[in-house]
Design brief:
single chain, 152 residues, alpha/beta, 6-stranded mixed β-sheet, 5 helices, 45% helix, globular
Length: 152
């Protein structure tokens, strides 16, 4: 099977899905969106939607089970990113940050620290609003991966 783009689609911003749909249409790279609720995807042979049962980490576990080395997984979920990196796949968040073996442990530690802070009642705030800069950073990272994937 050709290198595939997997999307943790439940929380993926619509604008990122639109970028992915256009890229998949242009390059014919397989694109698989995984979510626990139905969503429409373009009717193209290389774009698929997999609806999984509702439940904690069901979609994440499905992606981990099916992704292959050098595939690209789109997710903001840091534990999922860590698991796919362990499988030698790549993980990219919707803001354009590429998770790597050198930065994922630090991201996991920060996530766990922030979770501990929130559970103790400290208000930590949420992420900044999704910006044009985030969208452009994502598109640039996606294009870098596509160039390598399509050439292979």
């Amino acid at each position: 099977m050709a290198q595939t783009i997997w999307v943790d689609a439940d929380a993926c911003p619509v604008v990122i899905k639109e970028i992915l749909f256009k890229a998949a249409q242009r390059t014919k790279v397989p694109l698989i969106l995984v979510a626990n609720h139905f969503m429409r995807v373009p009717a193209l042979a290389n774009i698929q939607f997999r609806q999984v049962e509702s439940g904690f980490d069901i979609a994440d576990n499905w992606i981990v089970q099916h992704c292959q080395p050098d595939d690209l997984v789109i997710t903001a979920d840091i534990p999922l990113a860590s698991e796919v990196i362990d499988k030698k796949a790549l993980a990219l968040n919707p803001r354009g940050e590429l998770y790597t073996t050198s930065n994922i442990k630090q991201r996991l530690n920060m996530r766990d620290f922030m979770e501990t802070m929130r559970s103790s009642g400290i208000q930590t705030g949420g992420p900044d609003a999704f910006s044009q800069k985030d969208r452009q950073a994502f598109a640039n990272q996606l294009d870098r991966w596509l160039v390598k994937a399509v050439v292979k």
